[in-house]
């Protein structure tokens, strides 16, 4: 996962393999064209233009989660 794209309320692990909701308000993060600001989303670090790809996803009980696919140029503001 790409932490530069993560909404401020999403915490991405240092290895980029997991993400979760921040328990406390985040410290101010740098704003940028890559960062989601309105939707609580994060993009993968690597993009794909074709082929087959799969991921193992573990979802723990708690707030609702959604998993999807997005184009690189999806609106983030």
Automatic annotation (TrEMBL):
SMART domains: PRY. Gene3D superfamilies: 2.60.120.920. Residues 1-33 are annotated as: Disordered. Residues 1-77 form the B30.2/SPRY domain. InterPro entries: B30.2/SPRY, B30.2/SPRY_sf, Butyrophylin_SPRY, ConA-like_dom_sf, PRY, TRIM/RBCC. PANTHER family: E3 UBIQUITIN-PROTEIN LIGASE TRIM. This is BT1A1 protein. The lineage of its organism: Eukaryota, Metazoa, Chordata, Craniata, Vertebrata. The gene is Btn1a1_6.
């Amino acid at each position: 996962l790409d932490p530069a794209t993560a909404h401020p309320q999403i915490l991405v692990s240092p290895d980029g393999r997991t993400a979760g909701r921040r328990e406390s308000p985040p410290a101010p993060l740098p704003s940028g064209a890559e960062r989601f600001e309105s939707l609580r989303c994060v993009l993968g670090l690597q993009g794909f233009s074709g082929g087959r790809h799969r991921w193992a996803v573990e979802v723990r009980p708690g707030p609702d989660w959604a998993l999807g696919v997005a184009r690189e140029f999806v609106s983030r503001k």
